[in-house]
Design goal:
Elements lengths: L1 H25 L1 H16 L2 H32 L3 H31 L8 H8 L2 H7 L4 H16 L6 H33 L5 H25 L9 H31 L1 H22 L5 H15 L10 H26 L6 H25 L6 H7 L26
Length: 414
């Protein structure tokens, strides 16, 4: 009897011990808390902050620029003057536009020093010596000066949040991604199809970097725009970032492949196709958003719609512009690839896979866009719609962000 009682007590103690291990060590919540605690410890190191906020984004930007210049040199050395001129022209034009915006943002930061809520970035810019402004007036170097200020703030232990990190740099690199990275991707696909040459390692590296740069620019802009950087880092937030990344990889890849293939057969018409898309979306925004009036609004949102011609970034601000841009993108992709396939008539092995892949990818990307709107609270989910019915009105702005608890993810854009 005593032996049985002792055995029963031992079994109960073992069961309790195993249950405790399961609760404290094996549960997903406990593992996540431990991971977040470790991440907070790592993030406190200035080296990690410099790496995430400065080294990675600036390194991608410079690698993208370097590979494009090297690719242009490769075309020149091979006697392909036409492709050399196009490649170098896209690089030069994009950098000049970025330089103008970079100088403008530095000027805005310097002017904001008089405001009570001016950022530390603005104060450093105002106190910078003359050599800072001389270097900022040089293309490419001007963008690097933004990161030089952030590096200084990080090493001083100052707060690096503010409009410069949350808006200025994301917009600069978003424009660079569209004007340089995406245009280079379309051009290189066209060159590959037209010349039917063996793709060099340099071209593959350049195209991969262009895709990475574009996806990071769009995802990071949406990350700041949706105030996700002010929210607590949870599994839901990580999943949402992974969802946005996968969506943008698919969306940009399908869009670039479609335009590159279409341009290889109907080069004069690709500008008209993009121009009509841009014109319709710009007119729709001015008809819906009453804040966008005047020359400044026209210029700013004209550039914004250039971005949305390749990747949906600003059009989700309103439900009507979202549906319009989704329809234009979906129908445009299917129309362009169908016309291209009809003209090719199955001459190459990749014709049918490209047709099927683009059509399927466009449909899936449109579905992901709808899911993204539901996650942002701008469109009711089908379940909620069936239960309560639709309101029929334009959705309100996203609810106020959850206060930061000190472990939010800090991202930059390139």
């Amino acid at each position: 009897m005593t032996l049985n009682l002792q055995s029963t007590n031992n079994m109960a103690a073992t069961h309790a011990h195993l249950e405790g291990l399961h609760q404290h060590k094996g549960s997903p919540g406990a593992c996540w808390d431990k991971t977040m605690k470790g991440w907070q410890e790592i993030w406190r190191h200035k080296t990690m902050q410099v790496c995430v906020l400065v080294a990675i984004p600036l390194g991608l930007y410079l690698c993208k620029l370097g590979t494009d210049v090297a690719l242009a040199a490769e075309y020149y050395s091979g006697g392909q003057t036409e492709w050399f001129a196009w490649t170098l022209g896209l690089v030069t034009g994009a950098q000049l536009i970025l330089h103008i915006w970079s100088c403008g943002f530095l000027y805005l930061a310097e002017r904001s020093r008089h405001h009570d809520d001016s950022s530390n970035f603005a104060k450093v810019v105002h106190d910078s010596p003359c050599v800072f402004w001389c270097l900022s007036s040089i293309p490419v170097v001007g963008v690097c000066m933004h990161y030089a200020v952030f590096s200084l703030l990080i090493w001083r232990g100052s707060d690096v949040s503010g409009v410069e990190l949350e808006r200025y740099l994301p917009i600069i690199h978003l424009l660079e991604a569209v004007m340089a990275a995406i245009s280079q991707l379309c051009l290189q696909i066209k060159i590959w199809v037209v010349t039917d040459e063996r793709v060099s390692v340099l071209k593959v590296v350049s195209m991969v970097i262009s895709l990475v740069v574009t996806v990071k620019a769009v995802v990071t802009y949406l990350y700041y725009k949706s105030n996700l950087h002010r929210r607590t880092l949870t599994r839901g937030l990580v999943g949402r970032l992974l969802f946005m990344t996968f969506w943008k990889v698919l969306e940009v890849s399908v869009r670039v492949l479609t335009m590159g293939l279409f341009a290889s057969a109907f080069a004069p018409w690709i500008a008209l196709r993009i121009g009509l898309h841009w014109l319709v979306m710009t007119a729709a925004f001015f008809a819906i958003d009453r804040k966008l009036k005047g020359i400044v609004g026209l210029c700013a949102w004209g550039l914004a719609m250039v971005v949305d011609s390749f990747s949906m970034t600003f059009s989700p601000d309103h439900r009507r512009t979202f549906w319009l841009n989704s329809a234009l993108t979906l129908l445009g992709n299917i129309t362009m690839v169908t016309v291209w396939y009809t003209q090719k008539a199955g001459q190459d092995w990749y014709d049918v896979p490209a047709l099927v892949g683009i059509v399927a990818g466009s449909v899936v990307s449109a579905g992901f866009g709808f899911i993204g709107m539901v996650l942002n609270g701008r469109i009711e989910s089908p379940v909620a719609f069936c239960r309560g019915g639709a309101s029929g009105t334009e959705t309100a702005e996203q609810s106020s962000p959850v206060p930061d608890s000190g472990n939010s993810v800090a991202l930059n854009t390139v």
